[in-house]
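INFO batch 0412 | record 1 of 1 | parsing
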Amino acid sequence: MAPPVQEALKRHALEAFVAGRLEEAAALYRRMLAQDGTAADLWNNFGIILADLKRPEESATALKVALALQPDYDKPWVGRGSDAYGKNRLDEAVRCWSRAITINPRQDAGLWFNLGVARQMRGEAAAADACFDRAERLSPANATIASQRLLCLNYLDLSGERLLAEHRRFDERFGRPPVPEPAPHTNRPDPDKRLRIGYLSVEFREHLGAYFLTPLFEAADRRGFEIVCYSILPESNADAFTARFRAQADGWRAVGDLDDAALAALIRADGIDILVDLAGHSGLNRLPMLAHRPAPVQVTWLGYPNGTGMEAVGYRIVDRVSDPQGLADAHAAEALVRLPAPFLCFHPPADAPPVVPLPAGATGAVTFGSFNKLSKITDQTVQLWAEVLRRVPDSRLLLKDRPLSDPGTAATLRARFAAAGIDPDRLELVGFIKDAAGHLAAYNRIDIALDPHPYNGTITTCDTLWMGAPLVTLAGSRHAARVGASLMAAIGLPELVAATPERYAAIAAELAGDLTRLMRLRLGMRARVKASALCDEARFMHNLETAYRLMWRRWCDGVNRPPGRDAAGHPA
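INFO prediction complete | emitting tokens
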């Protein structure tokens, strides 16, 4: 075949690919490869198209041929890494993407970002941060990359000053108001009117919604507050809880396809008085949209263990334990409004399996455990847990997270504990469990839960407690490191909160050495949690709505950025 004909076929194949005519593009590549099966670039492109056609085995074969023909070709390594990542083979994905970067360091921001996500999921937060930093430098106008890097920084042991500076840098780049600036709000400044509360979230579903958002609907004072939801959640991810929230809301807007200006205009047209962001810098957030100031009062809460850093967000909802007065205020861009602890309300899963007797009674040894993301198992946490295991020589440590289904990731984690002096055979690593009941039942294998540090668990802590296991936590100097302290105080077990790493290990060892106390705690834990402030929906909503009313009255008085206040209006 003459080169001009081949080039014409390449152009046609590219046009078909861009237009989404994948079968046509694949047929054209088959035709070209039948004429010249030694062209690595043709095999690579054919592999990409096959991947888009959901033919992973054929795609993998094509990419392997491309690499056999040209081992120093970076693009097939990128494709192989993407295939591995999609199949939860994180160790392989990291190796393939790193190989692509070694061959060609001039990779785009997307590859650096994906490598950072994979490393973060494997518990390599410092390495992930370096990847996100590179991605951010290559694509400084991408707010998603910037938010992901900020989320990653929370896993590291950084000072409050450093974290605040990093978050303010986000505001400098993405938080400036549009030109021309938004018009003044026309909301009626009546301090006692029925308020329109807008909730902006991607979590109107089972994952977070089932745990913490349910009280916002079921225990709200509908005489004083109207609820409008702005759902970023793609329709393909909607579930039974999404339908329930939609039915309970006074207004429902699916806004995932709207740009910032259109979304801000919709919120303003809806007359929202208080807009509550439930994402922060996690997941699919819409923080840059808040710079348009679509609501008179803008608040962040729940979905992120830090502030937004944005001038446009006036308040952040916390409590006195999670964010003690003084230092926490100095490290916050928003005014901290402190609810009576805890700063959230847990709605227990109705279908949770029953709590079983103490696992140690059957196994003969205490099992410590954590179901937190590997990204929270920092080197500091490994050292902390290694000391616990040293103090309780016959104990085991059960860790569960989806990436542990990958043998390479599991081997890396075992090696980290081995480097800390712990026999890897003392670790029991559990990967993905598909059904929710099976996931919760796995907690019945844990005698004592260990909280990671400096980024504590939240959902995992609530699950742990509901399934009967007490939690040992180390209280740090910032919100992410004090959520455990807030939750344990709320259920009346502040004695399980340590102020130092040494005390953390001592508390865990003391619990492990007193099986009678452990059994007593276990058998009464579910009743304790249910009767506590953590599950008191009426109390929580009264406090939250009191805080909303306080914020609104201050706006009516012309005060937009007040000092920190508690839910009763007193200085916090």
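INFO post-check: The first strand starts at residue 195 and ends at 201.
INFO record closed
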